[in-house]
Amino acid sequence: MAALRSLLASRLAVTPLFALRPVLLPLPLSGLAATPRAALHASAPRPGTRVALVLSGCGVYDGTELHEASSILVHLSRGGAEVQIFAPDISQMHVIDHTKGQPSEGETRNVLTESARIARGKITDLAKLRAADHDAAIFPGGFGAAKNLSTFAVDGKDCRVDRDVERVLKEFHQAGKPIGLCCIAPVLAAKVLSGVEVTVGHEQEEGGRWPYAGTAEAIKALGAKHCVKEVTISFQHPERHGGPLAPPCCPAGGAQSVCVMGRSTRGGDASIISC
Q: CA–CA separation, 187 vs 181, rounded Å?
């Protein structure tokens, strides 16, 4: 047994702490001690990038698009980010029966309560979100962004944005921290951040590939610049660009940047693609 213990000790002494795989947000290693205990317990003890995820309900037609929310959570988890989920404590615009695609007459739901379904109950009122406590904010898509976080679905360019959503966007923008916006959510930034540059993909419908391309015209009417973008995926190291979570196009320092998430309706891929 003494010989076996000696062999194991020698193996552990030369075993690397991690076999690193490419991820969106590489984990810092400098806080780990090169000991056998550290090698065996690699779930280590340094905080990751702090990301606020803002939801708008539960369900694509009247709240958050679940596929987008879950995809974001998966990638943030793989990157070692610390995620806190928020939603406003307000009533939904209306409730949609997703089996019929029609409103459920007489039914009401709360955005915070519905969003808690995605968060598995671990959710915080958006009124408590402060940019100083987080490194980035991400808004998944779904019609809840246009119905609950704003009135864009009914008022278009004349829409109002929920006061806490507006406050959060302005706080992160003024702090030069990344803001991720999926699908229809870029209209939120277009409304409250003067002259911001965003994308919802293409400006032409192209045979069903971009069925909401008309939103680009509304973005222009709001005074924002719309950029035509294809969906691309980047695994660039974040330290080479504008801070944690910043895509390759972000300037060094990331000052006054808004990172926009675009979605192709063919294949449904989504990634941060522009500033």
A: 9
Token representation of residue 160: 């109002």
Q: In the annotation, is 183 catalytic?
A: yes
Whose tokens are 């076999």? That residue is 19
Catalytic residue among 58, 182, 183, 259: 183
Long-range contacts of 70-73 (CB under 8 A, 24+ apart): 70/118, 71/270, 72/138, 72/140, 72/180, 72/182
Are 201 and 210 within 8 A, CB to CB? yes
| Closest C-alpha to 139, from 109, 174, 166 | 166
Are 150 and 188 spatial neighbours (Cβ–Cβ below 8 Å)?
yes
DSSP three-state, residue 198: strand
Amino acid, res. 267:
G
Alpha-carbon span 114 to 165, nearest angstrom: 17
Residue 266 in tokens: 């063919």
- Residue 38: closest CA among 15, 60, 70: 15
Is the torsion defined by CA of 149, 151, 156, 161 positive or negative? Answer: negative
Q: Output the pLDDT for position 145.
A: 97
* Residues of the chain where predicted confidence (pLDDT) is lower than 50: 1, 3-45, 234-275
DSSP alpha helix (H) spans, 138-274: 144-147, 152-155, 163-174, 186-192, 215-221
Read off the pTM: 0.71
pLDDT at 232: 60
- The pLDDT tens digits of the residues spanning 44-59 come to 445 689 999 999 999 9
Amino acid found at 84: Q
